[in-house]
Amino acid sequence: MADSYDSLVPRSPFRVWRAFTWSLKGLRATWMLESSFRLEVYLFVLLAPLALWLGADGVERSILVGSMVLVLVVEVLNSAVEAVVDRWGAEHHELAGRAKDMGSAAVFLADLNVLACWGLILGPRYF
To answer: By three-state DSSP, how is residue 92 classified?
Structure first.
């Protein structure tokens, strides 16, 4: 009963602040523990200004930058799945391996999405 009541109570600034700090804690943990996330952040820092410069209008810029943000989001989720699977146990299990492979596939698909967005938007213009 308390859960349904909590969903009706507006968030106080304190609750929003706590959620924000938890989010930062998760980003920090991902940064510290995941080299692939760090690489993707470096690529984002390098390519986002290029996307803003090469995009012809706001829609193109948002697609070029947004596709890269999606990679970061998926990488954080993949890291979370891997952490839970690793926490559950060190022994090999088919479902644990499948979960990790699916998380990796999600990152791969997000990477392909970046290539498709950049290629479809910038390809006809420059090639």
So the answer is: coil
Q: Which secondary-structure segment (H or E) carries 88?
A: helix 58-88
Kindly report the number of other CB atoms within 10 A of residue 4's CB atom: 7
Per-residue pLDDT tens listing for the chain (127 residues)? 455 555 655 668 888 889 999 999 999 999 999 999 999 999 999 999 999 999 999 999 999 999 999 999 999 999 999 999 988 777 788 998 999 999 999 999 999 999 999 999 999 998 8
Question: Using CA atoms, how far apart are residues 66 and 51, in angstroms rounded to an integer?
Answer: 10
pTM score, two decimals? 0.86
Cβ partners under 8 Å of residue 69, min gap 6: 44
- Copy the structure tokens of residue 62: 């948002």
Q: Which amino acid is at 28?
A: R
Catalytic residues: 75
Query: Cβ atoms within 10 A of the Cβ of 76, count?
Result: 18
Give the count of beta carbons closer than 10 Å to the beta carbon of residue 77: 15
